[in-house]
Amino acid sequence: MSEEIKGRISVETENIFPIIKKWLYSERDIFIRELVSNASDAITKLKKLHSPKNSKEAPIIESI
């Protein structure tokens, strides 16, 4: 039977970004795919935040 161990982890962003850059985005295709995916997620979130039920502002004009 394994024993549960609790603790804390602290990560400084300046220390993690070089690791992400080297291992996660080392291939150009992966970087482009992640960039497009993140942009798509941001647009979806923006649409939800500015939906008629959440906002009385003018609708967002979409174009790519």
Textual characterization of the structure:
This protein is mainly α. The protein has helices spanning 13-24, 28-49. The N and C termini lie far apart (55 Å).
Which regions have little confidence, pLDDT < 50, spanning 5+ residues?
A: none
Strand content: under 5%
**SSE sequence, one letter per element:** HH
Give the overall shape. flat
Considering DSSP H and I runs of 4 or more, what fraction of the residues is helical? 40-55%
Protein name: GHKL domain protein
InterPro entries: HATPase_C_sf
Q: Layout of helices and strands, plus pairs?
A:
Elements: H1 13-24, H2 28-49
Short description:
By secondary structure, the chain is an all-alpha fold.
Entry keywords:
2 helices, 64 residues, HATPase_C_sf, GHKL domain protein
